[in-house]
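Feature request disguised as a bug report, sorry. It would help if multi-protein outputs had a clear separator. Right now it looks like this:
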Amino acid sequence: MSTEQHLAERRSPAARPGRVSLGVQGGGAIFDMNNFIGRSEGAYGVTGRYHVDDNVSIGLTGERSRRRLTRFAHPGKGRIDGERAIADVRYTFGDQSRRLRPFVEGGVGRTRETAQFMVAPRPEDHGARTRIPKTTDRNFVHHVGAGVTARLAANVELDARVAHTMSDNLRYPTCLTLPGQQERCDLPNTEGRLWRTTGYAREYRGDLALRILF
């Protein structure tokens, strides 16, 4: 048997051109949105990959995440939940007959973020109360990551990955209640005022994906 035939027999099915793999993924993250810092309470989703050749594959992932704020500019509490779809290109290194194979990837997508905050009263506010009502915004997002794929069986693979994701500004209105007055919000097109923005939204995450080959 030639070396090429031997490697072809040992090659992971995922590496064979034209194969498709589907699976589920989940993990956690720390995110930084300018003055807002928080952690993920859980992220889960579905993922699929088309294997172009031995080393290159194209992926599409859709996921939902729940995030709780742990610190931001002013004392208070809040959360930012998101839904995201990302398309990526992955390059897997090394001999495809190995059970452990490192990879790098990069991609772009869209994210839908829903935010809500309540700022705790402060002495310097003199009785004024501030809140950010439930707000949904959609943004462009780009993503880079690296990890290792482990072949668990002929048609089963496990990806362990760390990644950095960054999206455009999250826009949000602010509502203020002064003593003895009704609440006023700087909503779009209200007295010519614009929405505030977080400046940026970064997420540092780790996750696992279990994929089955078809």
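(second protein starts here, but nothing in the output says so)
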Amino acid sequence: MSVMSTARRSLFGKIAEQYVVAMIFLVVVICLQGCIAVKQEAPPPPKPRAIQFADKPTIPMSDDIIASDAGDFVAHLPKGWFLVNHESKGLQNVFAVGTNPDYTLSIVLSSMKRDDEVERVYQRDGLIGLAKLSLYRRSKRTQSPLKMIGTPQEVIAGTKEYTTYSYTDDDSVTITRVAICRSTLGNIYEASLAEFTFSGKSLPPKVQIEQTFASILAMTDF
């Protein structure tokens, strides 16, 4: 075997060795990048866009004003509705209850007591957090399981911002829609539109109920 042949084989061996080392390095780098990519936290999901309700009511509304005790929240009932006496029922923080003539829909206007828990939840999670706290407290107060339908949703009605949610306690036979807002004085208010079947009369069509809810919100000020 000639010296030239031995040198060529040696050179070829070194080139092959360098190629193998380079490929191993490339594979390691790719694996490391893959590991790093897996460990990176996924970016938070984009914030859902607020639902735009009608700027003005789509059903006739009463001119009579209903105001909170502090005067920083005012609302109107749909035309033909009337207020019912709620004081004898011992409903905490409720300042008005209205119903339609068929007693199939009722609007309850109330305030949420500003305790430490409310302040803490609001500072951390805003009105979305208060919506979840609201349902929890309702369930605890009524001692019955209330099922939220969907998730809380930010809503704009006119120039006002709310967070709304819906729940049921009878497998969606009836649904209660709740809107939560914060006034310029920092008070938290809830407007709850509840469906009832005790009168024996049929509930209004769903579209009409949603129009009623949106119209009440469009006429509130806080």
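Even a blank line would do. Unrelated, but nice: The radius of gyration is 31 Å.
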